[in-house]
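Async update (no meeting this week)

Hi team, since we skipped the sync, here's where things stand on the single-chain job. The sequence we agreed to prioritize is pasted below, unchanged from the tracker. I ran it this morning and attached the output directly underneath so nobody has to dig for it. Comments welcome in thread, and please keep replies under the output.
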Amino acid sequence: MKDAIEVEQLVKSYGDLPAVRNVSLRVPKGSVFGLLGANGAGKTTAIECMLGLKSQDSGTVSVLGMNPHTDRKTLFERVGVQLQEANYQDKITVGELCEVTQSLYRNAADYKKLLGRFGIADKTKSPVNELSGGQKQRLFIILALIPDPEVVFLDELTTGLDTRARRDVWKMLKELKTGGLTIFLASHFMDEVEALCDTICILKHGEAVFYGTVAEAISGSSKSTLEDAYLWYTDEEDTNDESL
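Output:
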């Protein structure tokens, strides 16, 4: 199996509102794939369908050769997930949350080493709700890596991190990719996408308006930067809202 993720003609609507429209993509094993799009473009819905958290209306999804609905238990032993919104018990500490997460997997990674690599080893006894935004974001990435996954889904992984911390995370992800990890990334930071992604897909109103490499996105738009190319593909050049 060459592709870790295969999506064919994915469709998902909420009532009369189409969220994802006929999206197809493939993510080779050991690569980094970037999903881009404005708020409401369908990124999170697409990821939730790939993970089996929501049922698509039509189309097919395969992750590591498995159906995320029918093979859910087996699949989640091999997949890590970091979503934008996460809610945990009040007063649960970083160490307790990591231990609970670790207990869910048969071949979990050492969370203490991960805490050290991501610079929050000193927060083991701190309540999660007392962490700064950046510290919480690092913790959520660590939780996604505790399963020692073959594929990890990261939704806006460096939101809240300063420039140095973001670059440290990029370096660690590149090392994990070198070790064979497949990374599916949703991000609104163009420098992050350029630094990490082998292939990208840009969504607009639930439809894929570009699919290819960063270089191809730039050359196909007649623009000189990925940020300008992204705005060109999504018709956001004249807007002031840069959030994705």
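Quick observations from my side:
Confidence is low (pLDDT under 50) at residues 239-244.
The first strand starts at residue 3 and ends at 14.
Reply here if anything looks off.
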